[in-house]
Design brief:
Layout (H helix, E strand, L loop, with lengths): L1 E2 L9 E5 L25 E11 L2 E4 H16 L4 H31 L6 H14 L4 H10 L4 H21 L8 H15 L2 E12 L6 H19 L4 H8 L11 E6 L5 H7 L7 E7 L2 E12 L5 H31 L2 E3 L3
Antiparallel strand pairs: 1-4, 2-3, 3-4, 3-9, 5-6, 5-8, 7-8
Helix pairs in contact: 1-2, 2-5, 3-5, 6-10, 7-8
Length: about 350
């Protein structure tokens, strides 16, 4: 990021004019003829501004450096058009992040928030320690990401400045009460009391793909009789062994096994996950015919006591509220800022 000097017009492209005079008329002694340079009068773009954020600019080289870590994956895309589309999307996203970061840095500077050089060095030392790097190893790792130590320190300072700005300018707006924590716990508890898994058995009465009314009526009558027997006191597995038309489960009393939420058809899930242990329900239409279900076991989620969950829930709610307040604050900064994107 580069600051614009006050009173100086913005140059969108910095150019070097090769072989052009200063434009100031001066008397010069005759010079011997010299061959004309092939670059005479040619404009060479050495840097390009791709965004203006209030009185600061973002350069194309800065965006390129930020793109290094994410470019590799896109370059694996074989199709040229898709690769170009993906790179363009990534460039736009990364540039948008850089604009947001610049706005936060500007807000920090306006608020007189500072980061000392010793703090930057301390953060750098911690990074080296956490990654088991010495100075040479750090320089090599930075070079692979398109950084020098100098510009990495510059970016690290800005990261610390942004973090401090959010902590000082946004965090005081975050309010989470004891009532909020208790309400969240109660909500989690209600969810945990719902059935998370069921052990299911069934009795199947097969139907063709397009059954006649008579075939459907006969299957329903068989199902009704099986339900009556099971609810009348007969063991479900005994009834299944006698009348089920599912050869793969008939010998085991219709056992289908355990099912988690989301692992069965939605129309079945609504039925079987509302059943209690021992319940028999049906007939339920399926791809093969009519089913009669019995839930033989249920599993419920378990919740720790409120006292053990309180701090964890508090942190979760504060993080959510912090994210929400930060997004609102950043949106307000954007509304008040002059932003001109020149990415092409």
């Amino acid at each position: 990021m580069r600051n614009l000097a006050l009173g100086v017009s913005l140059l969108v492209s910095v150019v070097v004019i090769l072989g052009v005079s200063t434009g100031v008329a001066r008397a010069q002694a005759p010079q011997p003829d010299r061959p004309t340079s092939p670059n005479s009068g040619r404009k060479v773009v050495v840097e390009r501004v791709i965004a203006i954020v209030n009185d600061s600019i973002i350069l194309a080289s800065e965006l390129e450096a930020r793109m290094v870590p994410v470019r590799g994956e896109a370059m694996q895309i074989a199709d040229q058009k898709e690769r170009d589309r993906r790179l363009a999307k990534l460039s736009s996203q990364v540039l948008d992040e850089m604009v947001s970061e610049e706005l936060i840095v500007q807000a920090a500077e306006t608020a007189k928030i500072e980061v000392e050089a010793s703090e930057v060095q301390a953060a750098l030392d911690e990074i080296k320690q956490n990654n088991n790097l010495d100075d040479a190893g750090l320089a090599q790792a930075l070079a692979a990401q398109g950084y020098t130590l100098s510009n990495y320190k510059h970016d690290l300072r800005r990261q610390l400045l942004r973090l401090r700005a959010v902590n000082q300018l946004v965090a005081p707006k975050v309010q989470v009460t004891e009532e909020d924590v208790r309400a969240r716990y109660d909500e989690m508890q209600r969810r945990s009391q719902s059935v998370s898994a069921v052990s299911l058995s069934h009795i199947l009465f097969k139907l063709p793909e397009n059954p006649t009314e008579q075939q459907l009526a006969e299957a329903k009558e068989k199902a009704a009789k099986a339900i009556a027997r099971a609810k009348g006191g007969e063991a479900f597995d005994k009834v299944a062994a006698e009348v089920s038309e599912d050869d793969s489960t008939k010998a085991t009393g219709g056992q289908l096994g355990w099912f988690q939420r989301g692992s069965v058809q939605p129309e079945w899930e609504q039925i079987v996950f509302s059943m209690e242990k021992g319940d028999v329900r049906g007939p339920v239409t399926g791809p093969q015919g009519l089913h009669v279900f019995q839930v033989t076991e249920v599993k419920n989620n378990q919740m720790k006591p409120f006292a053990e969950m309180k701090e964890q829930i508090m942190r979760e709610l504060r993080r959510r509220e912090m994210d929400k307040q930060t997004a609102t604050w950043l949106e307000d900064l954007r509304k008040k800022a002059y932003i001109d994107i020149k990415l092409r």
